[in-house]
User: Fold this.
Amino acid sequence: MGPILLSAVLGGLLATFAWAAHRRRRRLLATVAEVALPVASLALGNARKVIVYLPPGYGHDDRRYPVLYVNDGQECAALGLRETLAQLYAAGRIRPLITVAIPTNAGRLHEYGTAIAGSRGLGTRAAAYRDFVTQELMPLIDARFHTAAEAAFLGVSLGGLSAFDIARACPERFQTVGVMSGSFWWWAAEDETAIDPGQRIAHALVRRERPPNQRYWFQAGTRDEVCDRDGNGVIDAIQDTTELIDELLAARTPPDRIRYVEVTGGRHDYDTWAKVLPDFLLWAYGRRGSVNATGFKE
Assistant:
């Protein structure tokens, strides 16, 4: 067989394999239905298209499902959300759930943050965003879909801080919160009166009042950033997260209700967050024998 013919044959085989893999991926994704839901907000005075992912078998009976809300829903493809859900469903490793991806907009730096106070002029609409999620979006999802009372909130970076703040403030709605590379550096102004001035807001909130009986999942990467404000050899992204966990433990949160995943070489990007997403889903929704089975360091 000549080199030209061999090259053509190999090229054909590779194309066939790629086509077959594409078909398998499409069939897998099709098991998780995607519903686009336009939502207008009176609290925020804007609108967005929320994406809802429904588990295999949804609608075949009157079964009700836990709900996972996800900030930065416009990046759900980069996070690998639908594909990861489909893979874990296919392997029988997680309970079926309804997943609600909430996209952000040009006002992200103001809608995300902490409702009690902004930070350096940011987060000015965090309270309105909390009201949008809890008073407008969640009732709409509950009315439209077969939801159970169990709900969780997941976010990355500043969206993770937002998820933590909203879940902490609304324990009657959220039993679980997941934060990837959370912006827990969020500092109150020196003249702040609503919260401890000059302090990290999330940490101050936990110190101020005993946290509700929730479950907390945190992730940070060793290459999330390079900043080390106190020069102790631990980057701020990790130190802020682990010190928040210390505050939760000091406030008598049971250790078995907290999981911390530190990704060696992990960066502040969606490649890292997509890789660690299965760990959160297995921890939050895993069937027996599947929880904490992804090999990341605790």
In short: The CA atoms of residues 154 and 178 lie 5 Å apart. Residues 3-30 form the longest helix (28 residues). The two ends are 54 Å apart (CA to CA).
